[in-house]
Amino acid sequence: MPTFINDDLSLFYDETGSGPLLLILPGNTASCACHAGELEYFGKDFHAVSLDFRGTGRSQRLASWPDDWWEKCADDAAALIDHLDRRRCFVMGTSGGASIALLLAIKYPEKVSGVIADSCAERFAPENLRSEVANREVRTQEQIAFWKYANGDDWEEVVNQDSNLLMDFADRGGDLFKGRLGAIMCPVLFTGSLKDSFIPDIGKQNIHMAEQIQGSSTFLSNDGDHPFMWTCPDDFRSVSGHFLKKGF
């Protein structure tokens, strides 16, 4: 089982393929187990690696998730790049993983050659965050099966920790980047569905994010939902593959 240590935590990752390094970063309550399809597809051309963030998947659990959990996860991703003995990589993230991918590019510009940020926003309306947490109180069998597959038998602990994080984030205004997107030095591709049920204004938000980052682009579809990566996989893989090929 491939693991490494950062910040005194044991962190799990999965990998396949060879070539340039491509990090694949999951959403908050997902894990690398959920990205077997992306690992297989992109592993044909890349050394594709997906990380289980601290407190999730098969990585070490936390007593509580700190307010700066996303920032800490970006630090973990940077440590994984070092652990793999690579200088730079491309990063692909969806939902919360997209936010972490952008934070990685902000904090460690020397390590990131390009970012694909799927189904993400610059700011989250506090009422939307609170609504997302409230909706989790009635859990469908499909949701439970997903979370258990992603995180194991203690999936409920992971979901509750994330819900607490989202509520605290809502209380702090829902602004993760705090005006730092302009510090990103690499190309960024934003992808998403205009029917995203979690980010209703994703079109407006992604365009505004792209305007702040030189060399960035946006792909928005009338099909799919949240996340676009999984609800329209063929379209996502096609546009992502084109972006990645331009990076060489």
UniProtKB/TrEMBL annotation:
Single GO MF descriptor: serine hydrolase activity
Keyword set includes Hydrolase: yes
Key words, A-Z: Hydrolase
InterPro entries: AB_hydrolase_1, AB_hydrolase_fold
Domain AB hydrolase-1 residues, every copy: 20-120
SUPFAM superfamilies membership: alpha/beta-Hydrolases (SSF53474)
Residue intervals passing through the bilayer: none
Protein name according to UniProt: Alpha/beta hydrolase
Signal sequence range: none
Pfam families xrefs: Abhydrolase_1
